[in-house]
Specification:
This protein is an alpha/beta fold. Helices cover about 45% and strands about 15% of the residues. It binds one RNA strand through strand 7, strand 8, helix 4, strand 12 and helix 9.
Length: about 425
RNA sequence: GACCCUGUCGUCUAGCCUGGUCCAGGACAAGAGCUUUUCAAGCUCUCGACACGGGUUCAAAUCCCGUCAGGGUCACCA
């Protein structure tokens, strides 16, 4: 039975790199019909925070990673102590006293060659004479990372350790401890790191790093997962859009790339748009309701849901991020549209009183106010005036929406309604 | 500095294991055009890479060596 674990430290939010590590662990466990174990590495009492634990669990749930078991290292200190004492008794470790008289337990590193068979990188060799003695239990009684990690992975029967590249140099240290403790070695697989656009480590400087921030910005979890997947793995047939569900079937850890990848928001936006296009409008509406409410565009308990669904359908094909809807569709909710100054300059700087009032009259006199009739009357008007349709379409769009971009004009007029459309047009009639 | 990992279009990648079908394919971005209505949507086209140098071979992106470059790690943080 395959057992993998994701072991975040609650000293910060779940970030992109952590999310990606969780993804590959989860993917591997699912593809092997194994177990996915979550272990909170909260041995650092100073830096570990309950709020970060909550944030990490929340983000993992949002991504859809359900765990089979959950452990906290802070509840297992007696296990680490017990194994450290064992090494002490066996003469493989020694005690060192600090000037204040506190005792730490330190593992004595013996010179040897250590070989690791990495599932992604192949064989890696280390010379342990380059590694200094390793602290197992610090003088404050807490275990060090490498020690707690080995004890836990062994006691939790972890079969495959899938983690970031930055842990490669921890691997020989951990292997020595496995052997000293008499534990069987697990398999190792080191994923390439994700870099920021500046080539360095992904950091807040190079963009948001917390998974929850991506949710806040309006990315769908399916899209983020698809993007993260593509960052170091490809199904091999030139496909870019692949769901996690499909990936589970096709995944083979041997096909994971070795090269570190740069996190590129542009492609994430594109993938997100692809998912937004085919997303269920009902679900998108549910996500949007709190955002629209925050802007006071709607009242949660009293708004026209069918109307919102219509708007979602009108916009979803062109949104890079779901949140853009709030700004792009604002003119449906606001009493007066916010006019973009550049758009006004470009399309409303000349006097269109005659054209606007004629069009207002036209739509006012429509017996059947529907998209087809609105377009027919508009086409009739520009024919009468002898002008090109686009000479009037753009100014009308700006007057009604305040923007130069958006869905088709006649749909906008229809959903805005006869009265509001008229009022917004006549506002520009002198 | 030492040790370790990695090096295909600006970015993500396919191909590399099992050399020839690759004057290197796809996607994002960018640029151009089309769309009797805009657009961040759609369609079409264009630009653009095997890090460098040696070697092996009839033949190398693919195998070997070296160089260079980028990254990671060297904590009583995880």
């Amino acid at each position: 039975m395959v057992r993998v674990r994701f072991a975040p430290s609650p000293t910060g939010n779940l970030h992109i790199g952590g999310g990606r590590t969780a993804l590959f662990n989860w993917l591997f466990s699912q593809s092997q019909k194994g177990k996915f174990i979550l272990r909170i590495e909260d041995t650092d009492k100073e830096r570990s925070k309950k709020e970060f634990v909550d944030e990490i669990l929340y983000s993992l749930k949002w991504l859809g990673f359900n765990w089979d078991e959950l452990y906290y290292q802070s509840q297992r200190f007696d296990r680490y102590r017990m194994h450290a004492d064992k090494l002490l008794k066996a003469g493989l470790a020694y005690v060192e006293k600090s000037p204040e008289g506190k005792e730490a337990i330190i593992y004595k590193v013996l010179p040897q060659k250590i070989k690791v068979q990495d599932l992604i990188r192949g064989q890696i060799e280390f010379d342990s004479s380059l590694i200094k003695d390793q602290v197992l239990i610090k003088s404050d009684g807490t275990p060090t990372y490498n020690f707690a990690c080995v004890v836990d992975d062994a006691e939790m029967n972890i079969t495959h350790i899938i983690r970031g590249d930055d842990h490669i140099s921890n691997t020989p240290k951990q292997i020595m401890l496995y052997e000293a403790l008499g534990f069987a070695l697990p398999n190792f697989a080191h994923l390439p790191l994700i870099m920021g656009v500046d080539g360095g480590r992904l950091s807040k400087r190079t963009g948001a790093t917390a998974i929850s921030d991506y949710r806040k910005m309006g990315y769908l979890s399916e899209a983020l997962l698809n993007y993260l997947l593509l960052l170091s793995w490809a199904p091999g047939d030139n496909r870019e859009l692949i769901s996690v569900k499909e990936a589970v079937k096709l995944f083979d850890i041997k096909n994971v790339n070795k090269t570190s990848a740069t996190f590129d928001l542009k492609k994430l936006d594109w993938i997100n748009n692809q998912y937004l296009k085919s997303a269920d409008p009902e679900k998108l509406a549910d996500e949007l309701i709190p955002l629209l409410e925050a802007k006071h565009y709607i009242n949660r308990d009293n708004f026209d849901r069918p109307q919102l669904l219509v708007l979602v359908k009108l916009f979803q094909a062109r949104l890079p991020r779901l949140n853009d809807f709030v700004d792009w569709a604002d003119f449906f909710f606001l009493e007066e549209p916010a006019i973009d100054p550049a758009a006004k300059e470009k399309y409303l700087s000349q006097d269109l009183s005659k054209e606007f009032s004629l069009f207002a009259q036209k739509i006012d006199s429509l017996d059947c106010f529907d998209i087809t009739n609105i377009e027919t009357s508009f086409r009739g008007l520009v024919a009468e005036l002898g002008i090109e349709a686009k000479k009037l379409i753009h100014p009308v769009r700006v007057a009604l929406t305040g923007k130069t971009i958006g869905p088709g004009l006649f749909e906008v007029i229809y959903y805005l309604g006869k009265e509001r459309s008229k009022r917004r047009l006549l506002k520009w009639v002198k």
